[in-house]
Write a structure and sequence with these properties.
The complex is a heterotrimer of chains A (489), B (356) and C (362).
Chain A: H1 2-23, E1 27-32, E2 39-44, H2 50-63, H3 69-75, E3 82-84, H4 89-97, E4 100-105, E5 112-116, H5 145-155, E6 161-168, E7 174-181, H6 187-199, H7 208-214, E8 227-229, H8 232-241, E9 244-248, E10 254-257, H9 275-304, H10 312-322, H11 329-349, H12 352-372, H13 378-392, H14 397-405, H15 407-435, E11 437-438, E12 441-442
Antiparallel strand pairs in A: 1-2, 2-4, 3-5, 4-5, 6-7, 7-9, 8-10, 9-10, 11-12
Chain B: H1 3-19, E1 30-32, E2 35-40, E3 46-55, E4 61-70, H2 73-81, E5 87-89, E6 95-99, H3 100-105, H4 108-116, E7 125-129, H5 133-138, H6 146-160, H7 168-176, E8 183-190, E9 193-203, E10 206-212, H8 216-223, E11 229-234, E12 239-254, E13 261-275, H9 284-309, H10 316-323, H11 329-335, E14 341-351
Parallel strand pairs in B: 1-5, 2-6, 6-7, 7-8, 13-14
Antiparallel strand pairs in B: 2-3, 3-4, 8-9, 9-10, 11-12, 12-13
Chain C: H1 12-21, H2 25-28, H3 30-37, H4 41-64, H5 71-79, H6 81-113, H7 120-135, H8 139-158, H9 180-190, H10 200-203, H11 214-238, H12 241-244, H13 250-256, H14 267-297, H15 301-318, H16 321-361
Helix pairs in contact in C: 1-8, 1-11, 1-14, 3-9, 4-9, 4-11, 4-16, 5-6, 5-16, 6-14, 6-15, 6-16, 7-14, 7-15, 8-14, 14-15
The chains are: A alpha+beta (489), B alpha/beta (356), C mainly alpha (362).
């Protein structure tokens, strides 16, 4: 008796639900007669993968033998199917949006079967484009978090790999996973990361950069404090060092921390090359960065205030190239830097092929014309082009943006205070870097706090046999790296 | 919270704004003096000539030459600035000439400004000219600028020629020290072209005598350790020319008798480049002996001459002072002209070129 | 109590000590210390270095025996609260004076060599936020600046070998041509370039396992002594004594002679790079004085820093010209000499007796 009344209530609710749903655009609905009562099936057209529905669900519903939904469920080859009695309108709505199909069978209990058939618009795993390397693995992360985690699990198939999942964003409810290796990573780092992500107050998380910016130690810093990478091999390698990775659903870039300034200038390709070559390249990259930051301000400082420094032989070239130019060096430099930024920005906004053309045409035509018209000196043109080139050697895109940006204040201060101003500005940057932390760990390590053993993989990269300790920077629980043939030694 | 950022930017902008009108020295808005010449005119006034290059395309340089008379160097500079299109600055000063007449009066006051002005470097070459410095500067014909012309001339003569190491710093050290008298190169005009003619010898800051540059090889050996010099020797039987000369000098003092005795030990190594005799390899010891004798003779003659002039460009007093704890300046000055100074040469010919 | 995160490793004492010692004196001490001992004055540097090592040892003996181990605690223990705090205040003023001397002298050098028309107050407005930015956070940042203030200019020291081309060894011969008294007199002048070590009395509790860090303090002092000795010897064979009499900044003069194909006139880079050394000096003293104020009067560290920076600003603007800077230097030198070689040994003795007495009572 009791059962019957409840069945009736379920039926009444369903009728109401159906009535509501039918008003919705794109709602598809079928029904089918069965010995035990009518079966209703409904879903949202845009959310469900029609191929799977036709291939796996519909034929089985019609052809297989079953008494109630519990038996039907056994025939359906999907995980995460749910059997519910009377879930209520809201939940059904929510599930439909997420790509579920509901099957309602009259007069049985449980009366709802929900099958997830979301339309999987996944990008294929492709080669890394931002951090391309000639040698080494060539798989890059995609937008789907499960695929990304899978890529890591494939490389680190160990039970210690811990994945802590969180939901961030009041609207988007984006899945965020904090990944680390138990027993290697410092618990404190993991907890800091988890805690900070929990504390994030934001309505939407579209990309990992949102997390990167909201959990940064110092949000008013031009420097990125978490490294983002699209290379799965890099993430696997740093996890084994004891660092923490943060995966965000919908973003092909994975964050990792705690990181250091120098790590931003090491391309992962360094590890695929022989250590001497790799060290040389790393040094070249670092020199390029210093060159890129300092050379234009130096040009301005010396030409405006300290002509004594220029040797006589160089003066001929320098002075002659500047005689036609009506502006002081600082104006000249800012105009040219601005032009380079314009070209870069225009190139970045346009489709790849047009962008490249703009870059080349702009560079050659505008550059030559500016020199011929006497708006800039050709020495400065060379200097600035080289500086721009230097900034592009930085493997991490966000860092190379920062490097180009901090040149502008340096230019202005060099104009007023010459070399002294330049030094003061460098001191400002230096103190800022000293104050920065990444997940609570000093950002300027291993230079300061001075950690000689971490230098084995910083300015240079020593052979793997010498890198028998994990970086002290992340305070790993196990410092020593296991060596395979330790007993042979 | 944001107060500190506001304060920081206000400070920064104020700081930049109030110092932005500091005078700048933009490289193309100034004229960089490279060569200066000072001539004595009438009593106590001097004629100053400055050379400031103008840079033309294809690395060519054209020099502006300004000249005027005044009492002091910077008074002169004011007058010259009145003639120049851009401000004249001495930050890239490379060469300074004094004419002989001025050098005889003493050049102390015309060197002083270079040591005081922080924008002038330590490697300025000083020189004396036989005639007027204006004429000498005008006589140069070059497309690389007179500054470069003279610097290069000095540099290669110091490195490979007979000219000893000389520049503002050396001159200053020698002149300031109470133990050494300075020397300077001396120029003259030969065939309407400037020529390094001799080495001017100073007593304090006053010119006293000169030594022809072709005889200065011995002087250079006595003056410093030579790393790439040359030496010519002639006698009745043959001429020999020795290149790639390296030398070590060592001055020993023995407190004998009243004045003490100084021995200059000289080690010379060189390579034969020109030899008019036959098969030098067989006769090397004999040739070495000839050279030793010749060198000793010339050196002793040179030192004798310095003693007669009562000047000490070789810094013998410094060597005596540093190796003798009982050194007394007064006493040394008295005995110096009569002091026995002997030279001891050890010459060795290490190679004979590509011929036996 | 000071948290573990705030502390720095013992090795850093090396850099802290060196950074506190090497300041503007580095640019011109050669022509000051030779007043009595002439060309033998370089020996007095060694003697001064040894003397300072003894003072460091004395300081460590005092600091080791105290729980909190800084000057405030020692003063309060030794003299009681009121007199102790008063003496601490004088110590703060001394630290502040040192910072003023260093900063003002450096700006004077900039004025003489680069920008004669520089407005000092405007320049200070650029520097003060930097100092505040450094000292307002953890001590770690100050140590970082000191560390880099030693490491960066280290490469600059290598360029000092170029002037050796013009060296004349006879300028410093014969060795020991002066009496011991003269050399000792010169040593008392040489000590002025080592004075910054008094900051040790403040930062000691910030060192991990501080009682074990004494050897690093001595190494730091040896490094400074060695560096001064090298620079002094190079200057003494480069210049002769009568020439030195007229030179104000002998080290800068050494750089004047360097010419490289891509640049000349190294002293401009020298002055610029030396800013890092100066900064570490000023920052350390300012941090120390702010810390002392914070400890004695309980004022918030940041507020104390702001007030002290305002005083620094005013002091730097008031003293101007060669004469003003000289007055500053002389005063600081005299106070420093009294503090290091008279007051600290006396304090050590009184402190020692005090502790003995207290132990016996309990």
């Amino acid at each position: 008796m009791n059962k019957k009344t409840s069945q009736k209530r379920v039926q009444r609710d369903f009728d109401k639900l159906l009535h509501e749903l039918k008003k919705k655009d794109g709602f598809l609905y079928y029904n089918l007669n069965h010995d035990n009562g009518t079966i209703h099936l409904g879903y949202l057209k845009t959310a469900v993968d029609p191929e799977k529905l036709e291939k796996y669900i519909l034929p089985r519903m019609q052809e297989y033998m079953y008494k109630d939904l519990t038996e039907l469920k056994d025939h359906i080859p999907f995980t995460k199917t749910e059997l519910l009695d009377n879930p209520g309108q809201n939940e059904i709505h929510e599930k439909l949006v997420k790509g579920f199909v509901f099957i309602y069978m009259e007069n049985v209990s449980p009366s709802y079967l929900l099958i997830p058939l979301p339309l999987d618009e996944k990008r294929q795993v492709t080669i890394p484009e931002v951090e391309f390397s000639v040698v080494g693995p060539k798989e890059a992360f995609v937008e789907d978090i499960d695929t990304n985690l899978n890529l890591i699990r494939k490389r680190l198939a160990i039970p210690e790999l811990s994945v802590k999942k969180l939901k961030v964003g009041t609207i988007t409810k984006t899945e965020v996973a904090v990944v680390s290796i138990d027993g290697i990573a410092d618990e404190e780092n993991v907890n800091t990361a988890v805690q900070r992500i929990k504390d994030v107050e934001i309505d939407q998380v579209i990309d990992s950069s949102f997390i990167q910016q909201t959990i940064a130690d110092n949000k008013n810093s031009p420097f990125p404090q978490l490294l983002d990478t699209e290379r799965s091999d890099r993430i696997a390698a740093v996890l084994a060092e004891g660092k923490v990775a943060i995966f965000v659903d919908g973003s092909p870039h994975v964050l990792l921390g705690p990181t250091t300034l120098i790590e931003f200038f090491s391309a992962f390709e360094d590890y695929f090359l022989n250590w001497m070559t790799a060290s040389a390249f790393r040094m070249i990259r670092l020199i390029a960065v210093f060159f890129s930051i300092l050379v234009t301000p130096l040009y301005v400082a010396i030409l405006t205030h300290h002509f004594e420094i220029v040797p006589q032989t160089l003066l001929v070239t320098l002075v002659h190239s500047r005689t036609q130019v009506p502006f002081p060096p600082v104006m000249e430099a800012i105009i040219l830097e601005f032009t380079i930024e314009l070209l870069r920005e225009a190139g970045a906004r346009l489709p790849t092929k047009i962008g490249q053309t703009i870059g080349i045409v702009g560079g050659i035509v505008i550059g030559t014309a500016a020199v011929e018209a006497g708006l800039t000196s050709n020495v400065l043109l060379i200097v600035i082009a080289l500086a721009a080139l230097g900034s592009f050697t930085t493997p991490v895109y966000k860092m190379s943006n920062t490097i180009r940006l901090i040149r502008f204040p340096l230019l202005i201060i060099s104009h007023v205070y010459g070399l002294i101003g330049l030094t003061v500005a460098i001191a400002y940057i230096m103190v800022h870097l000293l104050r920065l932390t990444s997940l609570g760990r000093p950002f300027f390590a291993p230079i300061f706090p001075f950690r000689p053993q971490d230098f084995k993989d910083a300015l240079i990269r020593l052979p793997f046999s010498k890198q028998n300790k994990r970086p002290f920077q992340v305070r790993p629980s196990k410092v020593k790296r296991p060596v395979a043939n330790e007993n042979d030694k | 919270m944001y107060l500190k950022y506001v304060v920081f930017f206000v400070f920064l902008i104020t700081s930049l704004l109030f110092n932005v009108q500091m005078p700048t020295k933009v490289i193309d808005m100034i004229q960089m003096i490279t060569v200066v010449g000072y001539d004595a005119t009438e009593q106590d006034t001097l004629r100053g000539t400055v050379v400031a290059p103008k840079y033309l395309p294809q690395g060519k340089v054209e020099d502006f030459i300004y000249t005027d008379t005044a009492d002091t160097v910077y008074e002169n500079r004011v007058k010259l600035n009145a003639k120049a299109t851009e401000r004249l600055l001495s930050g890239k000063l490379k060469v300074v000439f004094y004419n002989r007449e001025l050098a005889e009066r003493g050049i102390k006051n015309f060197v002083e400004f270079m040591r005081r002005d922080p924008s002038i470097g330590g490697k300025v070459y000083l020189a004396v000219t036989e005639g007027s410095t204006l004429e000498l500067i005008n006589s140069v014909q070059t497309s690389k600028g007179r500054g470069m012309f003279f610097t290069d001339l000095f540099e290669h003569n110091i490195k490979h020629g007979n000219l000893p190491q000389t520049n503002l710093k050396e001159f200053e050290s020698d002149w300031q020290s109470e133990t050494t008298d300075p020397i300077l190169p001396m120029f003259s005009i030969e065939n309407k072209k400037p020529e390094l003619q001799s080495i001017a010898l100073f007593d304090g800051d006053k010119y006293v005598d000169k030594l022809p540059i072709k005889d200065a090889d011995v002087f250079k050996l006595l003056y410093e350790n030579v790393s790439d010099g040359s030496f010519q020797h002639k006698n009745d039987k043959y001429y020999i020319s020795i290149e790639n000369v390296e030398s070590d000098k060592d001055v020993a003092f023995e407190a004998k008798k009243e004045s003490g005795e100084v021995t200059v030990n000289l080690q010379v190594r060189g390579v034969i480049r020109e030899f008019t005799g036959r098969k030098p390899t067989n006769r090397l010891p004999a040739i070495e002996k000839d050279i030793q004798k010749d060198l000793t003779q010339k050196a002793e003659k040179l030192i004798k001459r310095f003693q007669e002039l009562n000047i000490d460009p070789l810094g013998i007093e410094g060597d005596v002072k540093s190796s003798n704890r009982n050194y007394d300046k007064q006493h040394f000055k008295e005995v110096y002209p009569e002091m026995p100074i002997s030279v001891n040469v050890d010459a060795r010919l290490t190679e004979t070129g590509t011929r036996r | 109590m000071i948290s573990r995160d705030d502390k720095v490793s013992g090795l850093m004492v090396f850099f802290l000590i060196s950074a506190s010692q090497i300041g503007v004196g580095y640019l011109g001490f050669q022509s000051i210390i030779n007043k009595y001992a002439g060309h033998d004055a370089w020996i007095s540097i060694i003697i001064a270095g040894i003397g300072i090592s003894i003072i460091i040892w004395t300081m460590y003996q005092m600091l080791k025996n105290d729980e909190q181990g800084d000057i405030i605690a020692i003063h309060q223990l030794t003299y009681g609260k009121w007199i102790g705090n008063f003496l601490t205040l004088i110590f703060t003023i001394y630290l502040l004076l040192m910072a003023t001397v260093v900063l003002r002298t450096y700006i004077e050098i900039v004025q003489v060599w680069m920008f004669p028309h520089l407005k000092v107050w405007a320049m200070l407005l650029l520097l003060l936020p930097l100092i505040y930015y450094t000292i307002s956070d953890q001590f770690r940042i100050v140590v970082g600046v000191c560390f880099l203030g030693i490491v960066y200019p280290f490469f600059l020291n290598l360029t000092l070998f170029f002037p050796l081309n013009y060296a004349d060894i006879t300028y410093i011969l014969p060795i020991m041509d002066h009496t011991i008294t003269e050399i000792m007199q010169s040593s008392s002048l040489a000590v002025l370039n080592f004075m910054g070590i008094s900051a040790l009395l403040v930062f000691y509790p910030f060192i991990q396992e501080s009682h074990k860090s004494q050897k690093y303090a001595h190494y730091g002092n040896f490094y400074t002594t060695g560096l001064y000795l090298a620079v002094c010897l190079i200057a003494y064979v480069f210049y002769n004594q009568s020439e030195l009499e007229e030179v104000i900044w002998a080290t800068l003069g050494l750089w004047k002679i360097i010419e490289m194909p891509f640049m000349e006139r190294f002293e401009f880079f020298g002055i610029a790079t030396l800013f890092f050394t100066i900064l570490s000096n000023v920052v350390l003293f300012m941090w120390a004085s702010a810390r002392v104020i914070h400890r004695t009067f309980g004022v918030a560290h940041k507020k104390a820093a702001v007030v002290l920076l305002i005083i620094l600003f005013i002091a730097c603007v008031i003293f101007s010209g060669r004469e003003g800077v000289n007055i500053l230097n002389d005063t600081a030198g005299k106070i420093g000499l009294v503090l290091l070689f008279i007051y600290i040994p006396v304090l050590f003795v009184i402190n020692f007796i005090r502790r003995k007495v207290r132990k016996d009572v309990s």
